[in-house]
């Protein structure tokens, strides 16, 4: 069994609404965003102050609703925030993902993005798993982005070179998230997770 390490999440921001690229926000040693933060768009001075406040609230919140309030503030100045983590890069074997997403006290929806490249007769079976304590793991309810309201705890197979997006059921109880891969044959997977 692979050794599991908890990946530090990366705070990211992009213009909202829209599908622009995510920008990583650099935090100081105290966990605070700086005035030099790149937002992905030009913000007026007053909006930049509000954006910094929202980012710091989102990244340092301990209350269950504070991250949602931070998102509302960010949306008001035309931004969207998320915590992102790389679970595995170019993995070709069975087992659990190298890293685990720890969403801490934040709430709200989460997405898992799986990018695969393949060789001859490719297949991989994946199980999305959640845990409250990073010790006991259970299948986590998720839906394919093509059918975003059809949730299931069942495994899913990937047999082509593709980008697969799984939406974690917002009603699921978890703090830690990982994937377990099995029956891997000629598939290379890169897996990222984000709490949005």
Question: Any descriptors?
Answer:
mainly beta; Jelly Rolls; 12-stranded mixed sheet; 2 helices; 12 strands; 14% helix; disordered N terminus
* Unreliable sequence segments: 1-5
- Largest sheet data: 12 strands, mixed
- Helix proportion: 10-25%
Q: Kindly give the count of domains.
A: 2
Number of strands: 12
- Tell me what the CATH architecture of the largest domain is: Sandwich
Task: Please state the overall shape, judged from the principal axes of the Cα atoms.
Answer: elongated
Rg calc: 18 Å
CATH class of the largest domain: Mainly Beta
CATH topology of the largest domain: Jelly Rolls
End-to-end Cα distance = 30 Å
Which range does the strand content fall in? Answer: 35-45%
Q: Topology as H/E string?
A: EEEHHEEEEEEEEE
Number of helices: 2
Written overview of the protein:
A hairpin with a 6-residue loop joins strand 7 (110-131) and strand 8. This protein has helices at 45-60, 66-76, and strands at 5-7, 10-15, 23-24, 79-91, 95-96, 99-102, 110-131, 138-139, 142-144, 156-158, 163-168, 176-195. It folds into two domains: 7-82, no CATH class; 84-195, Jelly Rolls (Sandwich). The chain is built from two helices and twelve strands. The chain is mainly β. Helix content is 14%, strand content 44%. Strands 1, 2, 3, 4, 5, 6, 7, 8, 9, 10, 11 and 12 form a twelve-stranded mixed beta sheet that branches.
